[in-house]
């Protein structure tokens, strides 16, 4: 039996490719406030640090996409006075 050559950290590609989801992923080390991480895990029910960070990043990106979409819609669409329309409508009460 032949032994495989040992790898040192310079031989390992830190960029991974998830074959199941076809998404590129990278590994990184970050410092996170432990109390904040524990609070996030309790609040969400997520069990891993990875899941918490993934959820937080996705939530942040989605929030900014919505904000930008709303800003892009500014000035488009209906420009009326709903209050005036309601005042002018006949009273439906009997």
From TrEMBL:
Pfam families: VapB_antitoxin. This is Type II toxin-antitoxin system VapB family antitoxin. It comes from the Bacteria. InterPro entries: VapB_antitoxin.
